[in-house]
């Protein structure tokens, strides 16, 4: 799959690659029109494009990875669900009168095994993003998620969560409906579930909105995803009264997968196709599916008590430091 064919939106650091791919396309079209053989030149330029793509994406800054995590064409929760499941049936509602479109979930079949899958859902365009509240879940969304996880626990189905949100909805109405309580309740209750829980940061993992479905036996993360206590822009606005210092804040916050793996916050970094998950969504989905099946096979060998102990110790050990 050629990235040039799917590149409908490019980031600033991708522009040299976009220009080179455009040049290759133009040369190929001119050669076909004039019946000229330029296969050697095309081959050389394509080799250079591959090298340039590797150079760019192997040396990304935290701020650039944040841009990729927010890429409008990055695969979403529903994209991954459709790609990795044999069957999928979406469930709706928190049984309290609300169905939050920013947090989706349901029952699926993963390699023949019944699982409950849920995650944040962003939109593809402005209209869709408004409908999905830009992936920022309401209290009803987190209550729906907990209802589905209780269902999974009752029937012995593993829980898979996909994290991709700038944060929980911070509106006045969300506070009136108990946003903080809904997230805190999920944090507490996820620790007591008997079934395996695997959480994957597929895009942007922001603040408590991410943590509300982020307590798991294993936490996986795509290499160009981010996971942070606050957005770099919010951090810069707080520390320096200047949101434009977001790049500096992104580096200081340790938001990248490799930083978080080193700190023990996540368990495994999932590689992405060169150019990012949006360049080859099916390849990214295949990587995700293999990782989920591998970890699921390991977790199902443990007893429910062992999984609960593992889950508790994992999060209990976060943030430990030693004073000299």
Automatic annotation (TrEMBL):
Keyword DNA-binding: no
Entries under Pfam families matching the protein: ACCA (PF03255)
Species per Swiss-Prot/TrEMBL record: Moorena producens 3L
Recorded catalytic activity of this chain's protein: N(6)-carboxybiotinyl-L-lysyl-[protein] + acetyl-CoA = N(6)-biotinyl-L-lysyl-[protein] + malonyl-CoA
Function field: Component of the acetyl coenzyme A carboxylase (ACC) complex. First, biotin carboxylase catalyzes the carboxylation of biotin on its carrier protein (BCCP) and then the CO(2) group is transferred by the carboxyltransferase to acetyl-CoA to form malonyl-CoA.
Coiled coil (residue ranges): 17-55, 282-309
GO biological process: fatty acid biosynthetic process; malonyl-CoA biosynthetic process
Family: Belongs to the AccA family.
Keyword set, alphabetical order: ATP-binding, Coiled coil, Cytoplasm, Fatty acid biosynthesis, Fatty acid metabolism, Lipid biosynthesis, Lipid metabolism, Nucleotide-binding, Transferase
Subcellular location: Cytoplasm
Protein name: Acetyl-coenzyme A carboxylase carboxyl transferase subunit alpha
Superkingdom of the source species: Bacteria
Subunit record text: Acetyl-CoA carboxylase is a heterohexamer composed of biotin carboxyl carrier protein (AccB), biotin carboxylase (AccC) and two subunits each of ACCase subunit alpha (AccA) and ACCase subunit beta (AccD).
One cellular component (GO) term of this entry: acetyl-CoA carboxylase complex
Keyword ATP-binding: yes
InterPro entries assigned to the protein according to its UniProt record, in alphabetical order: Acetyl_CoA_COase_a_su, ClpP/crotonase-like_dom_sf, COA_CT_C
Pathway involvement of the protein, from the record: Lipid metabolism; malonyl-CoA biosynthesis; malonyl-CoA from acetyl-CoA: step 1/1
CoA carboxyltransferase C-terminal domain: residues covered: 44-298
Gene Ontology molecular functions: acetyl-CoA carboxylase activity; ATP binding; carboxyl- or carbamoyltransferase activity
The enzyme's E.C. designation: 2.1.3.15
Top-level EC class: transferase
């Amino acid at each position: 799959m050629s990235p040039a064919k799917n590149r409908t939106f490019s980031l600033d650091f991708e522009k040299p690659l976009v220009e080179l791919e455009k040049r290759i396309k133009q040369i190929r079209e001119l050669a076909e029109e004039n019946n000229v053989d330029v296969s050697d030149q095309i081959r050389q330029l394509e080799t250079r494009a591959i090298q340039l793509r590797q150079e760019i994406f192997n040396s990304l800054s935290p701020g650039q990875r944040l841009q990729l995590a927010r890429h409008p064409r990055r695969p979403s929760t529903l994209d991954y669900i459709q790609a990795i499941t044999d069957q999928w049936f979406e469930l709706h509602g928190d049984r309290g009168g609300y169905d939050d479109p920013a947090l989706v979930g349901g029952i699926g079949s993963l390699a023949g095994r019944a699982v409950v899958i849920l995650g944040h859902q962003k939109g593809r365009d402005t209209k869709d993003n408004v409908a999905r509240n830009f992936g920022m879940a309401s209290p009803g969304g987190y209550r729906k998620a907990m209802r589905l996880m209780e269902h999974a626990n009752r029937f012995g189905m593993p829980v898979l969560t996909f994290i991709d949100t700038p944060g929980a909805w911070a509106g006045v109405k969300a506070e009136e409906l108990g946003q903080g309580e809904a997230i805190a309740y999920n944090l507490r209750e996820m620790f007591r579930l008997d079934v395996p829980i695997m959480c994957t940061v597929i895009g942007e993992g922001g603040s408590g909105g991410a943590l509300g479905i982020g307590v798991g036996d294993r936490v996986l993360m795509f290499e160009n995803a981010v996971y942070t206590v606050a957005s770099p822009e919010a951090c810069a606005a707080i520390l320096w009264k200047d949101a434009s210092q977001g790049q500096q804040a992104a580096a200081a916050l340790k938001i990248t997968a490799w930083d978080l793996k080193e700190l023990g916050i996540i368990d495994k970094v999932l590689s992405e196709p060169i150019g990012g998950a949006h360049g080859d969504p099916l390849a990214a989905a295949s990587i995700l599916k293999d990782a989920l099946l591998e970890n699921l096979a390991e977790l199902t060998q443990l007893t429910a008590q062992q999984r609960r102990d593992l889950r508790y110790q994992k999060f209990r050990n976060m943030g430990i430091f030693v004073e000299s």
